[in-house]
Design a protein that fits this description.
Blueprint (H helix, E strand, L loop, with lengths): L2 E2 L6 E2 L3 E3 L4 H13 L4 E4 L14 E4 L6 E5 L4 E5 L4 H11 L1 E2 L11 H6 L16 E7 L5 E5 L4 H7 L8 E8 L1 E2 L2 E10 H6 L1 H6 L3 E6 L5 E9 L16 H6 L13 H25 L4 H10 L4 E6 H5 L7 E9 L3 H13 L9 E6 L14 E9 L5 H13 L3 E2 L9 H7 L3 H11 L8 H7 L2
Parallel strand pairs: 3-5, 4-5
Antiparallel strand pairs: 1-2, 6-7, 7-11, 8-12, 9-10, 9-11, 13-15, 13-16, 14-15, 14-18, 17-19, 17-20, 18-19
Helix pairs in contact: 4-14, 11-12
Bound molecules: flavin-adenine dinucleotide (FAD).
């Protein structure tokens, strides 16, 4: 039975497929595979662009191992089964009056897949999803299930939060959640020159700031999401959990808070404009490459302004129905403008034009050994190309620019980096490899991608 990822950039034909529904069943599958000389990979939702989950050995499909195990409303600690998707997580947290402090821009990933690749959202004072992990339970290569946290086996914890499944199969993940909160969203086109000139101020002045730049257009789409209720408010009982409506009354910033967006407008803006209409533009551009630059300018010029408020996860998450390929690098935040200047100059010289916008986000430094934001405040630059269009020259150019700035590639997005480069990019890389040697000396959890990034 073959397996393929969302983007169609990786596929596999595992010798075996398991659907474990307990930690014991995960342990059993790992033990049997190891005895039979097979490698093991856990499958998430297949939303990595890299072949991170690929295996010719035993594939563990954890889609049946989902849901909340326990939740403590007072502390906000919530333990989930590893196959839980972010969509399922958001719905379950909402019922409890809790939320994730920060999220990426889709909710299809599993919690385990997201943390294993260092998935992040945006916010100068906020960190990626793995930094919201308080504890892990994982099944090691010898079939034993172990727990780790900041106080219990801290080295394993520092290594395992972002580890591409190289240390074992995550069985449960304990998340540090926050009281549910609403966001006031403001999305509007601004001239790119203005956005770049005001980048520091915009990043510092908003809880979640990001922008999209269409490579041949003059405007960027700027997204500013700000909390209406504060993240350190005490947990709210389920019956009184904040909605966008109640949050309007309790607006903490004293600023004018926009009303919720009606369903019909949400459908029009996000499904019709960002997916159906944009998809049609992309198909036209792919069929007639000479039309790409004018179409790209048209897309940039037709960006509209929208302001609304909604529960946080509804603002963070958008639907992405138009397929693309992507590469993303985290660069030191102070080098962002230089990286973008070089990228703008380089894009103008590409033989094949670029259909998709560049996305720029930001995150605070964290202490997770293989986190792309380890030890430094980071700006994320993500480049995309519409599926089926040439992208290699563009991605190579970007990789060289980001590499010169000391960039670290997203573990789940396309890149060509190897152990030598990555060893220089991550101060604790050798410590990670040491934990890998201790936990998986015979490389039960190996695959070609792990060999590329971590060595044999
Ligand atoms: C449309 C789209 C939008 C995206 N948006 C963002 C974004 O906003 N921010 C961002 O940072 N990234 C984003 N990504 C990238 C995505 O979040 C990551 O690639 C993420 O890893 C995908 O999760 P998954 O569940 O699909 O995992 P998979 O891609 O299936 O697996 C990823 C890795 O995790 C491992 N793994 C999965 N489950 C386990 C487990 N139980 N134990 C051990 N290892 C495990 C796999 O073996 C593999 O190595 C996006 C991707 C797409 C396609």
């Amino acid at each position: 039975m073959t397996w393929q990822n969302w983007a169609g950039t990786a596929s596999a034909a595992p010798a075996r497929r398991h659907w474990p529904r307990s930690t014991e069943e995960i342990a059993d599958a790992v033990t049997r595979a190891a005895q039979d000389g097979l490698t093991v990979r856990a499958l998430g939702s297949g939303h990595s662009f890299t072949p991170a989950a690929v295996t010719s050995g035993a594939a563990l499909d954890l889609s049946g191992w989902s849901g909340i195990v326990s939740a403590d409303l007072a502390s906000g600690l919530v333990t989930v089964r590893s196959g839980t998707t972010i969509r399922e997580l958001n719905a379950a947290l909402d019922v409890l009056g809790l939320a994730m402090a920060n999220l990426g821009d889709i909710d299809a990933q599993t919690v385990s897949g997201a943390i294993s690749t260092g998935t992040h959202g945006t916010g100068a004072r906020l960190q990626g999803i793995a930094a919201q992990v308080a504890g892990l339970e994982l099944v090691l290569a010898d079939g034993s299930a172990v727990s780790c946290s900041a106080t219990e086996r801290p080295d394993l914890f520092n290594a395992a939060r972002v580890s591409l499944g190289a240390l074992g199969v995550l069985s449960t993940v304990t998340l540090q959640c926050v009281p549910a909160f609403a966001l006031a969203a403001d999305e509007r086109p601004l001239p790119l020159e203005e956005v770049l000139g005001r980048f520091g101020e915009l990043a510092a002045g908003n809880d979640h700031f990001e922008f999209y730049w269409f490579p041949y257009g003059k405007n960027a789409l700027v997204k500013r999401n700000n909390r209406i209720t504060r993240g350190d408010d005490p947990p709210v009982p389920p019956t009184a959990r904040p909605t966008a409506k109640s949050a309007i009354v309790s607006g903490a910033r004293g600023a004018q808070v926009p009303p919720p967006m009606p369903q019909w407008r949400r459908f029009l803006e996000y499904e019709v404009m960002e997916n159906a209409a944009f998809g049609a533009l992309c198909r036209t551009g792919r069929a007639i490459p000479a039309a790409i630059k004018p179409l790209n300018r048209l897309a940039a010029a037709s960006l509209s302004k929208r302001s609304y408020s909604a529960p946080s996860h509804e603002v963070f998450v958008t639907s992405r129905r138009v397929k693309f390929v992507e590469s993303e690098y985290a660069v030191p935040v102070e080098s962002l403008l230089d990286v973008l200047t070089e990228l703008r100059a380089g894009v103008a010289r590409l033989a094949d034009p670029v259909m998709f916008p560049v996305e720029v986000r930001i995150a605070a430094a964290d202490d997770i050994w293989l986190s792309t934001a380890y030890g430094r405040d980071s700006a994320y630059v993500a480049i995309h190309q519409y599926t089926g269009m040439p992208y290699q020259e563009y991605f190579k150019l970007f990789e060289s620019i980001a590499g010169s700035a000391g960039g670290r590639p997203h573990w789940g997005k396309m890149h060509m980096r190897d152990t030598v480069y990555l060893g220089g990019a991550y101060p604790r890389f050798a410590d990670f490899l040491k934990v890998r040697d201790e936990t998986d000396p015979s490389r039960v959890f190996a695959n070609p991608y792990l060999q590329q990034v971590f060595g044999a």
